[in-house]
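Hey,
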Amino acid sequence: MNRLRRNGEWSVVLFVVALLVFNPPVLSIFSVPDLLFGIPTLYLYIFVAWGGVIVLLAFNVSRLIESESPPPLRIPGPPPETLRPGDDDVVGDGSGERSGSERRDEGSY
């Protein structure tokens, strides 16, 4: 199975787990009058679970982006010549004369 499909399946699993985590029967488990670190248990559960879903989603999205990026294009052979500042885009000896392949029969319009 390729990596892109596996990451896509992981996205679906993460969505279903998030639905279950924030389902009212699960939330009712943490709806008690106790305090943890001075914060109601339900609030702490919601914020920790929400943060966990965000972290897992960010990790999954970064892996999706990496697997979708195509490999860099490699062209065999030497690198092409680059123009230096001040060079013109004109190819040739700079005399302005056309070569034999560039000449046209001007009388055949």
